Amino acid sequence: MALEIRQQLKLSQQLVMTPQLQQAIKLLQLSRMELVEMVRDELEKNPLLEEGSEEGDDKEPLREEQEDVRDEDSQQEEFIDPAEGRDRLKEIDWQTYFGDYSFESSHGEGNEGGEGDEERPYYENVLAKKTSLADHLRWQVGLSSIDDLERKIAFEIIGNLDDDGYLKSTLDEIAGVTGSSLEQAEKVLGLVQELDPPGVASRDLQECLLRQLESLQITNPLAEGILRFHLKALENRKYHVIAKNLDVSLEEILAAAKIIASLEPRPGRPFFQEDTHYIIPDIFVYKVGDDYVVVLNDDGLPSLRVSSFYRNALSGGKDTDEEIGEYVREKMRSALWLIKSIHQRQRTIYKVTRSIVKFQREFFDKGIEHLKPLVLRDVAEDIQMHESTISRVTTNKYVQTPRGLFELKYFFNSGINTSGGESIASESVKNKIEEIIASEDVRKPYSDQKIVELLKKEGIEIARRTVTKYREMLNIGSSTDRKRYF
Question: Which residues lie across from 418 on neighbouring strands?
Fold first, then answer.
């Protein structure tokens, strides 16, 4: 069989993702904070980008992209005359502005008797750091009369505590790091466990609770016996089993369990410093009269424009190096596309939010009980966009409404049929399940089947496994976990 090389033409169509299109898609799914960070990064990389509003003819093509997003007249900043600005500066009480902070030396003239109350800074202006568990323990070790090796071992133990206050290293590892014997490490561990908070530096829950009984001087042999030999049964609330094994009454077991419940299973909890994550809404929904107004949040988002210096250089027709000219033109295209993409992003978010408000009008008027089933396709068909675009727009975007702060995806819910033939949103069903569980008797909590029956009385017919799924999504335990004896 002979092989030969041939050339032939073939026509085909394929979808190609240009770099500009990829950038536009990426901008859609960025959160507001990520967008601000990306814009700041582009301002550093692209010399043609500047902060400020567009000027002249360059603003006209961009105005078409944002005409449905916001009224430009409302975005114009108030012009302040320089002379008027200087007059305003004179009107400011600078002494109050700086908190009566004295810039003079504390030993200067007029300060013979030391600093007065007016000359001291406000305490509100002083940043304070919360004491950590490690700092609290090191401070106590510093007050102890122990030798240098024991202090080194104690600091090593403190450095190996987790956020809950439990020791995560073995004594062999601590002895090896500090160059001490196992007996010395165990002795110092006992000293650290006697520090505040009670139960700190324990190796497991049993040791932690027993240490607390000892530190708090709680004398209850029954509680101590339960912790030593029946901790697993106690965790599973098998009080009858414990009472039978210890040959005591159920009332005595419940009394001892109440004492154990008053202990702290996580000694380091009061010192745990969890980072606070603040959410800045991308858009606001205000109620004006009987209508709802959608307003984009542009605070903190830099307003971009193309540098007039480089724009004049390109339009002036001056002879420039070909390589430099191509670089400037490329950066010019990149800058214009970024500005256009940001405007398109804002315009899309605005349109999607307006569509959501239209579909969920009853929710904004009456509350979560009236949240309607809504899918991405409904909004996509309403604003003539693809479902994938709606999905990207609603990811990590938050809206501040008269009902509270919500992620845009919150308004998209599957529908559950009611006995009346209507549909109710799954979020509304979850809210009803929360209300039912909140009103139950903790001594006799409702089973999932009982919740199904209560929902059926309200016209909501769902399966027991659906109730179980929604309950787990709400981080609510089963009826056995929720049952309380005291």
Answer: 460
Non-local CB neighbours of 175 within 8 Å, separated by 6+ positions: 153, 181, 182, 184, 185
What single string gives the DSSP state of each residue in 411-461?
A: G-B-EEEBTTS-EEEHHHHHHHHHHHHHTSBTTBPPPHHHHHHHHHHTTB-
Q: Quick check: helix, strand or coil at residue 9? A: coil
CA-nearest of 97, 102, 96 to 117 is 102
Q: How far apart are CA 241 and CA 183, in angstroms?
A: 39
Both tokens of residue 306? 């193309």
Q: How far apart are CA 483 and CA 486, in angstroms?
A: 9
257 token code pair: 């369990």
Q: Give percent of the chain with pLDDT exceeding 90.
A: 36
Question: Residue 244: which domain range?
Answer: 133-271
What is the torsion angle, in degrees rounded to the nearest 10, for the CA atoms of residue 149, residue 150, residue 156 and residue 157?
160
Q: How many CB atoms lie within 10 A of CB 77?
A: 7
460 within a domain of the structure (yes/no): yes
d(CA 484, CA 486): 6
Cβ proximity of 427 and 371 under 8 Å:
yes
Predicted confidence (pLDDT) per residue in 31-59, tens digit: 888 888 888 888 888 888 888 764 444 44
CATH of the domain at 238: 1.10.10.1330
C-beta separation of 44 from 323 below 8 A: no
Based on the structure, what is the number of domains in the chain?
A: 2
pTM for this predicted structure: 0.63
Six token digits for residue 365: 């008027």
- The CATH number that applies at residue 464 is 1.10.10.60
At residue 420, the pLDDT reads: 66
Euclidean distance between CA atoms 402 and 400, whole angstroms: 7
How far is residue 479's CA from residue 477's CA, in Å, rounded to a whole number? Answer: 7
Beta strands 49-51 and 304-306 are antiparallel
